[in-house]
Structures are given as structure tokens and as C-alpha cells.
Amino acid sequence: MFQPETIRYNDLRTPYSEAMVNQVLERVLSTGKVTGDDGAELDLHSHVAPEQGEFIQGLIREINAVTTLEVGVGYGISGLFICDALSDTPGTRHFLIDPKQHSEWWHGAGLKNIRDAGFGEMIDFRELPSHIALPQLELEGVQLDFAFIDGWHTFDNTLLDFFLVDRLLRPGGIVAIDDSEWPSVRKTCRYIATNRKYRVLRCLGPGKRLSFPAVRKLMSKAARSSELVSKLLRAELAIPDAELGLLPNSRCVAFQKLEDDDGRECFGHEEF
Question: For residue 265, what pLDDT is reported?
Fold first, then answer.
């Protein structure tokens, strides 16, 4: 069984204040404050942590990504990490999608931070729902090297974002899915791992792998040996996350696309 590399928080080699060169990113994370484009001062919340940002940067640099995308801008923290990783590469383009960027939630602060950091010419911002913006990009012929999905976290929205991103992502490209410990998001991760031509490349987790209780191990063994029992059990019990390469409780999972797949090779799906 393929075992993806696991990145734990204490594996990161340098604290963000030493690793980052962008002053806007360092200031925002240090103060915990952001300013909207309407002048509103806001407390920083609902954003990727520094270790998540460095996790994303490592993925981008590993494949020498040129064209990237993120669903969900928020306060712009993930966008700052992504653009910072792209800044030394010529001809880069980063697409941002967020229909609520100028709402009472974010006050345009994310876009402002990214532009204040000097990345304005690099970005292409779409203030549209992802189910509208992503098909537009496909019609425009955009091909992605890397995508970060951090939008609305229901199962249907996360799965739809993945489906549409997949149509843009080149083989060999990477899609990272944030908040993968949420049950709704984890279900999408299980679908990708079981039914699509992707491999789990890397997980960012809170620490060591969690061991499964003996009863769960026995149920899993029984499920694999009996088709009837397997049908009666939830897929998560029949095939635990760890067997799919998904670190239990990991908060971000990176998948690498192996090849294009339009789904026509099968007439159903494996349980996930």
C-alpha cells in the first residue's frame, strides 16, 4: 500500500517569522489584525495557520507551479503564502475565487492584503460562486498546476469544487483540500482516493497516526473477508482512512493527479 508522506507541525524547519520574506504576511500573522478596503479594522480568524501556509508553499515549489488557483479568499492569508511561493518564478498567474470577498464577513481585506504585498499583477480575481467561475476558466482554456480548495465545506460544495478543478488541473498537478478533518470534507477526500485517478501525496496532520481500536480492526478484517458484511458496514469501517493513505484528523490533504479521467471507464463507484 502506498504511504504518503506525513507532515506534522513540528516537522516544519523554521518558524514563519523567519521563513517568510513578505512583510504584509508577517505583519498580519504577528498582529492578528487586518484592514478592509473600506477602512474597517478586523480581528484575524478563519484562516490557514502558518504551518499550513508553508505546507502549501512546499507543494507549489515541488512541482515548479506556474498557474495556481484557490477557492475561498477570506483574509488573503493562503493567497499571500501562494503568491509568495510564486514570486521568484516568471510568468506566474494566481486565480482567486470568492463571491463574498466584499461582504460584511471579509470587507475586501483579503484582496487588499494581496495587492498591498505587491502581488496585484500576478492575480486574477473572480468575485463569483465557484460553480460559475470555474467553468468560465475552463472555457477560457486555463490549465492549472496547483489548486487549493477552501470554500464552502458541505460535502456537495466540496465535491463540486473538486470536480470542476479536476477539469482544469493538468496531469501531475496537485490539488490540496483544506479542513479535511471535517466529516463532510473527509468524505470528498475518500471519494477522490477510492474513485479518481489521483494519489494521496501528502497530509498535514496534528501529530502521530491514530491507532484504531481492536474492535474496529476486527470489523475491518471481517468486512474485507465477507462481501455481505462489507455491504452492511459503513465504508469508513470496511476501509479505514489509513488504508487509503489519509492521515486520521489531518487538516489538509494534497492529492496528485495521475492522469485525465472523464469517468467513462466505470458505470458505478466504489464505496467511499
Answer: 60
Q: Which of 95, 168, 80 is nearest to 125 (CA)?
A: 95
Candidates 55, 122, 63; CA nearest to 94 is 122
Angle among Cα 16, 257, 137 to the nearest 5 degrees reads 85
Q: How many CB atoms lie within 10 A of CB 218?
A: 11
Whether pTM > 0.70 for this model: the answer is yes
- Residue 270: CB atoms within 10 Å: 12
What would the mean pLDDT of 119-131 be, rounded to a whole number?
95
Gyration radius of the chain over CA positions: 19
pLDDT at 86: 96
Which parts of the chain are beta strand (E)?
Answer: 5-8, 33-35, 41-43, 67-71, 93-97, 123-126, 144-149, 169-178, 198-205, 252-257
| Dist. CA 100–CA 14, nearest whole Å | 33
**Which residue, 199, 171, 197, is CA-closest to 263?**
197
Distance of CA 240 to the CA centre of its chain: 21
Tell which wins on pLDDT, 235 or 213: 235
Q: What percent of the chain has pLDDT over 70?
A: 76
Q: What is the 3-state composition of the chain as percent helix, strand, coil, each rounded to the nearest 5?
A: 40, 20, 40
Question: Domains of the chain, with CATH numbers?
Answer: 5-209+245-257 (3.40.50.150)
- Please state whether beta strands 5-8 and 93-97 pair in parallel, antiparallel, or not at all (unpaired): unpaired
